[in-house]
Design goal:
With about 280 residues, this protein is α/β, with parallel strands linked by helices. The chain is built from ten helices and eleven strands. Helix 1 packs parallel to helix 2, helix 6 (about 175-185) packs across helix 10 (about 250-260) and helix 7 (about 200-220) packs antiparallel against helix 9 (about 240-245).
Length: about 280
């Protein structure tokens, strides 16, 4: 490859072991790592510094925008227009054989005008252009791709190339906490998931969300900080907040888990499972 290949990502404290498990087998495949690390620093940051190669570790405050965090890697590091990058989450794994295959195929991709690669429908790799940027929070896509492929549909694909250890690494109820965290993210797109073909329902969900966040804010709490929202519910559970909790499954699951010690939660996007408070 004439152009450089970078491995980019976003992380924070507490992921040291996951970073090592992800990066060690494949670090030699890249010219370097360009990662955004959100303060405070820990052993994970120290590790990234030792394996960054020609890359750079960018330190930044967390601002509840994953697309902003990933764009730091494109705009603030040593990557040049024309270079390629691969990005996955730190709870995902790819093999060296897979990355080597991608490196071999990139010249062919470029001849065919391909400048983006998806993995199981998720953004995975792209060629950096002036207009390239991550968009969407917390589920980012990549703008600026003119022609993309789904890599699992190519002949060289093997299922063992990719794995996800997220469910092994966390408590089975963590998904409900994550959903709540994503629910209050600024400009969240999380409410679209699984309801892409029901836009009227999506609009209703966003109206409930707006009412919920506005009430939290009016009560003097930060609606985009989960700790602050929890303090609000503990101290000021108004009728408006109750109405919202009884209308939105994410809110209902989170409330029942946090405040009622419920452990009968079901990870389905089924609003008939809401148990009113």
């Amino acid at each position: 490859m004439k152009r450089k290949l970078w491995f980019i990502g976003v992380t924070h404290e507490g992921n040291h072991e996951h970073l090592k498990e992800l990066i060690e087998p494949i670090k030699s495949c890249f010219h370097g790592l360009i990662w955004t690390f959100h303060y405070p620093k820990d052993k994970g940051a120290e590790y990234l510094e030792t394996v960054k190669g020609e890359g750079e570790i960018i330190y930044a405050k967390w601002c509840n925008r994953l697309d902003y965090s990933r764009n730091h890697c494109l705009y603030q590091g040593p990557m040049k227009v024309g270079d390629w990058f691969i990005t996955i989450d730190c709870h995902e794994r790819i093999t060296k054989e897979f990355v080597d295959s991608i490196k071999t195929m990139i010249p062919l991709f470029e001849k065919q005008g391909i400048d983006g690669i998806y993995l199981h429908g998720k953004r995975f790799a792209a060629k950096l252009k002036e207009e390239t940027k991550f968009v969407g929070n917390p589920h980012e896509g990549i703008n600026g791709i003119s022609k993309a492929i789904e890599v699992t549909q190519w002949d060289f694909w093997k299922d063992y190339f990719f794995s996800n250890v997220r469910n092994k690494a966390r408590d089975k109820f963590a998904i409900f906490m994550s959903a709540m965290k994503y629910y209050i993210f600024p400009s969240t797109n999380h409410l679209l998931l699984h309801f892409e073909n029901n836009q009227n329902f999506v609009k209703e969900r966003y109206l409930v969300r707006s009412k919920f966040l506005q009430e939290v804010s009016d009560l003097g709490f930060n609606p985009h900080c989960l700790k602050s929202v929890k303090n609000c519910i503990e101290n000021e559970l108004t009728e408006i907040l109750k109405e919202c909790i009884n209308s939105e499954k994410i809110l209902n699951d989170w409330y029942r888990y946090e405040f009622l010690d419920a452990r009968d939660l079901i990870d389905k996007h089924d609003f008939t499972l809401i148990k009113k408070i």
